[in-house]
Amino acid sequence: MANIFITNYCPRKCSFCFAKTRIGKSSRESSSNFMTRENLRKVMDFLELSNEKQLRLLGGEPTLHPEFLSIVDEAIGRGFRVHIFTNGMMPRKVADGLAEHDPEKISFLCNVSPQAKDTKEQRARVHYALEKFGSHLQLGVTLTEPEMEYEYLLDYIDRYKLSRHIRIGIAQPIVGAENSHLGTGLYRETGKFIARMALECEKRDVLLGFDCGLTLCMFSEEEIGILAKCSEGFKCVCGPIIDIGPDLDVWSCFPLAEVLNTKLEHFKTRNQIASFYNDLLHPYKQLGAMGDCVLCKYKKRNQCTGGCVAHTMNALNKRPAFEAPLPCKKDCPAVEKQTIV
Prior knowledge:
10-stranded mixed sheet; two-stranded antiparallel ribbon; 10 helices; alpha/beta; 15% strand; disordered C terminus; globular; TIM Barrel
């Protein structure tokens, strides 16, 4: 999979935002704020060559792209299933247009984290979107503290007949920038809370799912058992997500968005990008995000990834020696590299 960052404009200014370094660099009206249709078609061509069937659109708030409905129409027409990462603050005409699509071809993940300071008008837009999309919209939240109030999520699910799944993420640091994030010293308390939340949500027939960067040591063996029964299943994940920006620049994931950047033209397929970043990040992943990771048996057996690599990079304050790949010719079999001095 790959995430397509089609606009850097967002009406929210969340302190934890993992895309903070990429958002708000131009006004909403600026053409430089949006991915062009030409670039978007290059991305679609690339995904087709990569045998990717899903187009994952995000920002910023992707639905504020002035051609958003047309983009979705074109993507579905080309055979993609469209997945939209949104905060719900879309114009009503956009929500109305998206709601007309076959739910088998379009889905939504809507972040409604409690840290948001939405205006009355913004909240009205969010609620309108929730009502429009119903069961093909899943709620997501980002934890910046070990606990949060989550009853409102269950209320939204019941009121608007949303997907009975909630995606939980923990706020990760950004390499080279400051943001609110969950320190590793708070992981154990956070794990206790997540297990309690999973139990309570399961009573309402709602299952939790998990974003990347969580670790096994966040949970006791009993809590792992709870997650096995009361969630979509827990698995430690930290790998190249692959994000593609408006100008076709590429980075491994948003916490690393300001380091190790390259260009889409340097690669033939998504697998080449993933291999490129896996090689670069391997030394950091061997260390893990916490001091105990080095000797952890679960880490050694690859049962745990050791948390977000951004923690490791920030702790070491050292970047890897970076070799940028050469532009990939149409028939290139592999990625060649050129050293940046």
